[in-house]
Design brief:
The structure is a single chain. By secondary structure, this protein is α/β, with parallel strands linked by helices. The chain contains five helices and five strands; from the N terminus they run E-H-H-E-H-E-H-E-E-H. The chain has one domain: Rossmann fold (3-Layer(aba) Sandwich), CATH 3.40.50. Helix 4 links the parallel strand 3 and strand 4. Helix 2 packs parallel to helix 5. The termini are close together. Bound molecules: 1,3,4-trihydroxy-5-OXO-cyclohexanecarboxylic acid. The site of 1,3,4-trihydroxy-5-OXO-cyclohexanecarboxylic acid has 10 residues, from loops.
Amino acid sequence: MAKRVLVLNGPNLNMLGTREPDIYGAQTLGDIAALCQSGGESLGLTVDFRQSNHEGELVTWIQEARGGADGIVINPAAYSHTSVAIHDALKAAGLPVVEVHLSNIHQREPFRHHSYVSAVAYGVICGFGAVGYSLALQALAEKLQ
Ligand code: DQA
């Protein structure tokens, strides 16, 4: 049976394409969703791709993933650097988590160097732009075999 992967995106990622394209690239979130759907299909994964600007909504989706998904790919965006709630929800979900960032957060402002999500992810991918999502799905497909 196809493994189910929840791909979550945090605040402001709905603005991709027009938002600081020199940092985040020219691709829209719709382009990245399409990339994940086709990449997931070829890896035998069913991808549920979502975005929210609200921390609580992301927490609820993570809670629902327990029992409803086999793994999570998450770009928590700015919540990476602030959200104990997302850290706790991911830990409680008990599912394998891959954290993705389009940009190389370690090359940027110091406040982006720490992520509360990294401690509950088994892997972190950053700096490869949209390709990072494909890499995350590949890693998760391998892990879920
Ligand atoms: C980001 C990096 C975060 O620091 C930032 O707040 C984002 C996007 C990335 O994908 O590079 O919104 O997660």
